[in-house]
Amino acid sequence: MQNNKKFLPLIIVSIALFYSQISIASFHQALPLGQYKVGFKLFHEYDKRRSFAPKYDYFGEETFSPIGRPMQVAMWYPGKSIADKKPLKYRDFTAFTSSEVDFARQAKGEREQHINSLLNSLPDRAKAGYIKFWQQLTRSYFNIEVAGDNFPVVLYAPPMNSSVHDNALLCEYLASHGYIVVSVAAKGEFTRLQQQLVNAAQVQALDLAYLWEFSQRFTRNKKVAVIGYSLGGLSNLIFANKNKDVDAVVSLDSSIMSQGWLEDVQTTSYYQPSELTAKLLMISKNMHQPSINPADFYQQVIFADKWLIRYDHNTHYYFSSEQLLLRMQFDQFSADDKKAIIDFYADMSRYVLEFLDFSLLGKGDVVAHEQQAIKHSFEQVKANKQPLLPESITGLIIKKGYQYVRPILQDIKSYMPDYIGRLSWRNLNTTARELVQRGRVDEAISTLELSLEAFPHWYQTHVMLADLMLQKGMKKQAVTHYQSALKDHPTHQASIDALTALGIDYLVYKQRFIPDEELDKYIGKYIVDEQRFRKIYRENGSLFLFSNYWDKPLKLWPYENNLFLIESDDGQSNMQILFQFNEDGTVASLKTRGLNSGRIGDVNVKE
Fold this sequence. Notes:
Low-confidence stretches: 1-22
Largest sheet: 10 strands, mixed
């Protein structure tokens, strides 16, 4: 009996290992690897552009903490065949977390101490389950030889406060099919733990930016996708919105599809679905109750091909391989339920791989799978044409010519009527000057005409056009533009001089005015904001504009029905007053336009 007691612990561990191997083997069988062995490396880097630990303590003494944000980077990658090397255990993944933020804790003893501390912190009833989980074999081989240097990159964003191996099964699966997968733990801006705030997602998005830069050390391939689960599925959308190099985004039960998070994010500048241009795959739950996981962000994406898949279950942790494996050590699942859940995870992973292959490699397509025990819905929507960034137009004119750009602008305008108005007159005018220097005068004229289309009634553009047309002997057209410049800015001396030299009469602005009996409708108070206002009033037969944040009122010249001028040589007052009207002809509001900058101010509503 005494001898039997000696072997009892070994028998218990063997039984635990037997059941855990059945659990992991079921996942492996449902999700077979691709052509490559899976390598795993761990790096300890600092992002020197951001801080983490305080440089000085409460008393002002220097802490001598490392400079930069600690980035323990995990990398799964396509590896070469191995002979007798054994795969890592999940215990190893957990042990690696000892040095997530404290890089001094990388030694074997530190990692063992970390494991023991975690185990001792658990209630007794949970310890056996964790031991079972930690004994399971991964499919990752530590530091094996890389199979090549031209694999596309996948950045993985874990859920809130989670470590890199949260979805190790998916990361291994993708690496075996030819992807480099890199990840870093989800941590707070200055502490290991994140707070449940939108800013936590922005911090994690910056971590993804670091990972993209870091990953370029290992591949020549410039294709990149981001995958995120839960909060990570919000962080990757923030990152992809800001980084147009991203080819594809996968969000697994993203926080952006959680009612609480959605409401918080929608009030911030991070919520920009119309700015997303990377292909998008969103996978979520609650197929029969979609309002629980609203797809507002997905529905408002218009310039990216997009897919939405909803599975018929309501369990968030099904999307994490680590959480699934752990729960299967504790929770009671029937054999049918366990198989259904494993098949769901495998099906989801295959969708992710097919989406990446299609988006990054141009291989295959993303089509609906056959239904399994956990059914799902499948939706695909093609993107609208993606307009060029307005700020890119001028560079394209220089590089490829105005005649190349104009048809593109006309096409964009057909589905985005206000697009031309988004172009910068200042950039277009600067480009016109550069075209003149290059001897491309006709293109300069066309570019200035585009500038007027973008920002009409602007005297500076009219004057530039007039000067160029005069150089080309187009006197009639030049005169028209000088006259238009004076209409916009009646005191512009260069236009007056040019018309005088050409022998053309011009209308002195003081000879043009609105009849006195029509001025009463302009008089009144105009609201700028809660504290500021303007007032137009009459005094001694003249009109004045007063603002409660100016030193003195300014005299107005009622030049046209919708345009008043400022009678002043003061540079601050070098502006026009533009009026807007109601349908009945009464004045609704005014705006100011600076004659130096061309900037039009906000609407000031008339009381």
